[in-house]
């Protein structure tokens, strides 16, 4: 077994100065970070003056490839996985537009989510920081959460807006539904979307005495547009809003950031809201779930066509990925992890729930593609371990935005990988010093590390089962390039693996010691914080029992 040079020296940070890294700022507590946030925001706003400052406030190296500042579309799907796309070999669902994106850009086959469940994953997407730093853990936020992602966190929207980008957020936010936490108050010019998961509200026959979540709302900025949402026209509404935003932005002459966070595909349960539009119902072999994927694929195609029709498609960067793996506890109503089955767990632990919520590859390894004509070679592939954490520093670099100062960023600028892929001209070891893979259950722990082509499991547990945490000493090691199903653990007595285990253990201790955590924001159950504009439910959600008083933010 050869390591193949996967564990090279810690180059640490790809690109020029982006990604302050987990070690930088070690020991800075959440309070200290908070005090520095104003300085970070000021730095971002300074970039709006048109200075082409590079990441970290440096001059020069931040210049975008090709010299221009491209508009950017981040297409972020909910619970979509490897086994759900034509581009990754799924037999039962046709996804011609996603396939086109993959064909015209780079397949990023080593892409990891930053968490295997919705809200924490999205917190890391928006901040470039491990979610434990943002306070969004454990689990996903409820429809009536008291708080959300900490208000001192600087978002991708704020960073890009600071560089003069127009910003629009669409779809699932899931970082807090109260006004201060919504996207239009967090760096996005406008927001249209269902602010949390589509299974966190009713669609008909609501009984507020039995349910904590009211009818599912559709928001435009802070206003409720629809309640309950019409799920059959929801994607169409998102697409129309996106098209209007693209048209207005192109007319303005300013670059733009569009975050399209699909409410699809999550999980399909009879009686629960996972409906595709009428044009897609019954269109696929994978039932309602497949129909939702097909409509999602259509939405991406509409966005690409709009960019092309306005003559800006060749200048735009499109990145597509998903927030976490399939909710396998839902059996046939969820997506498929494809080759990332976590078979060691089935063969030795007796469980197959190795998708969403778990630290197995099925929970974390995401389909991901990036298209940028003229910069990213079409039909190219990278196996480099990359992360959703990398989006913020990369978009900032490409857009000429200043990175937040005085706080720890965990993601890395991966512009070189997008351009050149793996190889001597690209960055080969972006996460060689160990990508933490977090457990999703309290107490939060780093359950695994991805190091080069290897993955070390320190703690394993099923995604949603009641099974106990299993501690592994020595850790389980898999070569996830050659063994994506995590079936064949490598021999810990092998000298190379033994050395890897030593390095991994040290790295995990270092990370545990240096990552400051905010108190968790997960506080649901406050009915008065549910979004409800219907007087008939006042006794339940507006003037009824108020629960506890809000905490100091
Ligand atoms: Ca999700």
Description:
This protein is α/β, with parallel strands linked by helices. It contains 13 helices and 16 strands. The chain has two domains: about 400 residues, Alkaline Phosphatase, subunit A, CATH 3.40.720; about 80 residues, Arylsulfatase, C-terminal domain (2-Layer Sandwich). It has a ten-stranded mixed sheet with strand order 7-6-5-4-8-1-9-10-2-11. The protein has a four-stranded antiparallel sheet with strand order 13-14-15-16, with helices on one face. It has a two-stranded parallel ribbon with strand order 3-12. β13 and β14 form a beta hairpin. The structure holds calcium ion. The site of calcium ion has 5 residues, from loops.
CATH fold naming of the largest domain? Alkaline Phosphatase, subunit A
Q: Order of SSEs, N→C?
A: HEHEEHHHEEEEHEHEHHEEEHHEEEEHH
Mean pLDDT score, rounded? 87
Q: How many structural domains are formed by the residues?
A: 2
Through-space gap between termini = 52 Å
In CATH, the homologous superfamily of the largest domain goes by the name: Alkaline Phosphatase, subunit A
Number of helices: 13
Helix content: 25-40%
Task: Kindly name the structural category.
Answer: alpha/beta
Strand content: 5-15%
The CATH architecture of the largest domain: 3-Layer(aba) Sandwich
The Cα radius of gyration reads 22 Å
**CATH class assignment of the largest domain:** Alpha Beta
Biggest sheet strand order reads 7-6-5-4-8-1-9-10-2-11
Largest sheet: 10 strands, mixed
Could you tell me the number of beta strands?
A: 16
Q: What's the multimeric state? A: single chain
Shape: globular
Enumerate the spans where pLDDT stays under 50 for 5 or more consecutive residues.
Answer: 1-31, 44-61, 544-553
Bound molecule kinds, no repeats: calcium ion
């Amino acid at each position: 077994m050869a390591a193949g040079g996967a564990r090279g020296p810690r180059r640490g940070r790809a690109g020029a100065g982006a990604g302050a890294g987990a070690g930088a700022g070690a020991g800075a507590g959440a309070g200290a970070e908070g005090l520095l946030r104003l300085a970070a925001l000021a730095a971002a706003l300074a970039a709006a003056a048109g200075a082409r400052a590079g990441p970290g406030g440096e001059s020069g190296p931040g210049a975008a490839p090709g010299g221009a500042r491209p508009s950017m579309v981040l297409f972020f799907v909910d619970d979509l996985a490897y086994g759900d796309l034509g581009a990754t070999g799924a037999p039962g669902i046709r996804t011609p537009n996603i396939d086109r994106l993959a064909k015209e850009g780079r397949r990023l086959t080593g892409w990891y989510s930053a968490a295997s469940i919705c809200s924490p994953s999205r917190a890391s997407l928006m901040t470039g920081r491990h979610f434990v730093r943002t306070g969004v853990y454990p689990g996903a936020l409820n429809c009536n959460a008291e708080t959300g992602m900490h208000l001192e966190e600087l978002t991708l929207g704020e960073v890009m807006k600071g560089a003069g980008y127009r910003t629009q957020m669409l779809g699932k936010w899931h970082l807090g539904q109260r006004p201060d936490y919504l996207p239009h108050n967090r760096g996005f010019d406008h927001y249209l979307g269902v602010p949390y998961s589509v299974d966190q509200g009713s669609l008909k026959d609501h009984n507020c005495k039995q349910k904590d979540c009211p009818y599912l709302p559709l928001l435009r900025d802070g206003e409720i547009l629809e309640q309950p949402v019409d799920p059959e026209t929801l994607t169409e509404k998102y697409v129309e809003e996106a098209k209007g935003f693209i048209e207005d932005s192109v007319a303005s002459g300013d670059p733009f950031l569009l975050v399209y966070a699909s409410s699809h595909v999550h999980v399909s349960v009879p009686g629960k809201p996972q409906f595709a539009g009428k044009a897609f119902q019954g269109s696929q072999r994978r039932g309602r779930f497949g129909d939702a994927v097909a409509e999602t694929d259509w939405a991406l195609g509409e966005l690409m066509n709009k960019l092309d029709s306005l003559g800006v498609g060749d200048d735009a960067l499109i990145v597509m990925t998903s927030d976490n793996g399939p909710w396998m506890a839902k059996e046939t109503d969820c997506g498929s992890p494809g080759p990332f089955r976590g078979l060691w767990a089935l063969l030795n632990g007796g469980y197959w729930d190795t998708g969403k919520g778990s630290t197995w590859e099925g929970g974390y390894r995401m389909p991901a593609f990036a298209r940028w004509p003229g910069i990213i070679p079409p039909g190219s592939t990278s196996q480099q371990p990359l992360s959703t954490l990398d989006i913020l520093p990369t978009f900032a670099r490409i857009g000429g935005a200043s990175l937040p100062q005085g706080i720890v960023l965990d993601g890395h600028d991966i512009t070189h990988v997008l351009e050149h892929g793996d190889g001597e001209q690209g960055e080969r070891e972006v996460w060689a010093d160990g990508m933490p893979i977090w457990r999703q259950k309290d107490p939060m722990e780093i359950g695994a590390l991805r190091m080069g082509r290897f993955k070390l499991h320190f703690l394993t547990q099923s995604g949603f089962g009641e099974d106990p945490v299993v501690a592994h000493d020595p850790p389980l090691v898999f070569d996830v390039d050659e063994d994506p199903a995590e079936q064949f653990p490598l021999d810990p007595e092998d000298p190379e693996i033994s050395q890897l285990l030593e390095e991994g253990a040290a790295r995990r201790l270092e990370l545990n010691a240096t990552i400051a955590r905010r108190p968790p924001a997960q506080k649901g159950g406050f009915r008065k914080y549910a979004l409800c504009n219907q007087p008939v439910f006042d006794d339940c959600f507006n003037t009824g029992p108020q629960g506890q008083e809000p905490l100091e933010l």
